[in-house]
Design brief:
single chain; alpha/beta; Rossmann fold; TIM Barrel; 8-stranded mixed barrel; 7-stranded mixed beta sheet; 15 helices
Length: 409
């Protein structure tokens, strides 16, 4: 079949043998464009050999759904949020090894194609392909062949005057950005630091949140992790810094066996078995997994499934309050975290804002009934600390209580 622009899909790996039975292959679709997701789902629903088991909009949700459904195929948008197709491909291969990944993208530059194929993708289809080419490519990948749009097998960037020059410049910039962030995975590029979480009544340290110092530079730590996810290295960087944090906490664990270590984990990392293996190097009762970027979950069911993986190891879970206050905390009851953290946006003006005080008081009473510990973030002024103590908030962290620093050896 021909593409509208004259290209056609090249099916590699030899001819596909005829099927011995009416096998129907399950497909997971991941694309951040709702219209594209709908079109692909409709296409699959109209194809007797293929059936869609899930359609999501980012890499973290794709890994979560792959862990749940173990699909035969995962059709992944290369540029979607959460680390793109590269992060999703790596994560899916860990949670569902038999799933064959097919990249689906408008980008056909060499660097992008090569990275996806090296991540384990079995095919790479360009957006704009005909419906039949998409179907043929998926079926061939499901049956063990490789499907690449024509020209991609040579990994060539199109030579089309100024457009070709722009594509080459963009590809070079992307490669430089990727290689720069990849350097953060090298020894010595990142240093674990630990911010204390303190009991507000008494002032004793309850535990530490593991953070990362990447040294002086123009970008903040938050921006570095965001950029790493954009180029497909976010999950790897999170896992690397988790390893460093665990290694650095062992001495403190021996000195103070009652303290816990809280390690941040995005949805994409939560479904990587390697994370829980790293954390298992510490006693389970001293580990808290702090779930970040909750909005990347398509539903509370997915969040609950991720939390269950942590609880099965005997570890505790902390989640950030989503900003919906009391109603959001009610929904989190089904998720079952042991700790809920109040964002600094709530605690920032709590000493001068009556609605904030009322909200935190309601959350505190609700959490007490549910056996949930409340931790207030961003405590920087004595006035905030005084009000939070009066309300009865359990714990807090912030510059007033202690900055993030390396632990003494």
């Amino acid at each position: 079949m021909n593409h509208p622009d004259g290209r056609h899909a090249a099916l590699l790996g030899g001819p596909v043998t005829s099927r011995t039975g009416p096998r129907v292959y399950t497909v997971l679709v991941a694309d951040d464009a709702p219209a594209t997701r709908r079109a692909l789902v409709e296409l699959l629903d109209d194809t007797p050999l293929l059936t869609c088991v899930g359609a999501v909009g980012d890499a973290g949700a794709a890994v979560a759904e792959a862990a749940r459904y173990r699909p035969d195929l995962a059709l992944l948008d290369v540029m979607m949020p959460g680390g793109g197709g590269l992060a999703a491909s790596v994560g899916i291969k860990e949670v569902s090894p038999h799933t064959r990944v097919v990249a689906y993208s408008a980008a056909g530059d060499r660097a992008t194609v090569v990275r996806m194929l090296r991540s384990g993708a079995s095919g790479y289809l360009l957006k704009g392909a005909s419906a039949q080419d998409v179907i043929d490519g998926l079926v061939h990948c499901a049956e063990g062949a490789t499907a690449l749009s024509e020209g991609l097998s040579e990994h060539l960037v199109a030579e089309m005057g100024e457009l070709g020059q722009a594509e080459r410049a963009s590809g070079a910039a992307a490669r430089a950005r990727y290689e720069g962030l990849a350097g953060l995975l090298l020894p010595g590029a990142a240093t674990p630091v630990y911010q204390p979480v303190v009991y507000l009544h008494g002032g004793d340290v309850a535990g530490y949140e593991a953070l990362t110092d990447f040294g002086e530079g123009p970008s903040s730590t938050e921006d570095i992790f965001r950029e790493a996810h954009e180029v497909g290295l976010g999950v790897e960087l999170e896992l690397h810094t988790a390893r460093l944090a665990v290694a650095g906490f062992r001495v403190e664990m021996e000195r103070s066996p009652g303290l816990y270590l809280a390690v941040n984990a995005s949805p994409g990392l939560l479904y990587r078995p390697a994370l829980l293996e790293v954390l298992s190097e510490l006693p389970a009762e001293q580990v808290v997994v702090e779930v970040t970027e909750q909005r990347q979950f398509d539903s509370y069911d997915q969040l609950r499934d991720a939390v269950q993986l942590v609880h099965e190891r005997g570890m505790r879970v902390a989640v950030d309050d989503t900003g919906s206050g009391f109603a959001g905390l009610q929904r989190l009851v089904d998720v079952g975290p042991e700790i809920v953290k109040l964002d600094k946006a709530i605690t920032n003006e709590i000493d001068s804002d009556a609605p904030r005080r009322a909200l935190v008081a309601a959350i505190r009473h609700f959490a007490d009934d549910m056996g949930i510990t409340i931790v207030a973030e961003g405590i920087e002024r004595p006035e905030q600390l005084r009000v939070l103590r009066e309300i009865g908030v359990d714990c807090g962290q912030g510059y007033l209580l202690g900055r993030a620093r390396p632990l003494p050896h």
